[in-house]
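REQUEST FORM: STRUCTURE PREDICTION
Request ID: SP-0412
Submitted by: Lab K.M.
Chain count: 1
Length (residues): 170
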Amino acid sequence: MRMTRQHGGVFFRSCGRVVAWSRPVRVSLKVLFEMFNKEKKMADYETILIDKKEGVSTITLNRPEQKNAMSPQLHLDMLDALEDLEYDDDTRVLVLTGAGDSFCAGQDLKKYFMEIDHDPKARRRAKEASVAWRSYKLRLFPKPTIAAVNGWCFGGGFSVVAACDIAIAA
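STATUS: Completed
RESULT:
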């Protein structure tokens, strides 16, 4: 989160979006940060589900109709979620699983290559997010990670499994 002052007010930015703006009033920064954190914890992602219970945070890849194939949006969602959970005190263990009958069918070739082929900026963002969350964020996650492989796993799905500390297959 980054704060910038502009015209006597304070903008709070997250991922390039303005999430709160305050005119100079007598509100402590602690209150503002708590408001920000509550909003961030309730973040809804398009392609993943996050469940937190008793110190275990579970991320479910939620594209069962495509066998949880990794789309550019999934890469961006995973990068954001892992950055949030990395410093979450309520998360002691991270579990990754897939919705439906598949863990992950690898890269969604249509969405990753064909649909963003004409947009170099989107292609670069997707590539950077793909590499960042699988090769760095997940592999170097400061808490134990478990891949709960619940069915089919193909191609790039193995990189997710390999980046986790423990893999359990059913």
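NOTES: The beta strands are 2-6, 9-14, 17-22, 48-53, 56-61, 93-98, 102-104, 145-149, 152-153, 166-169.
Reviewed by: T.R.
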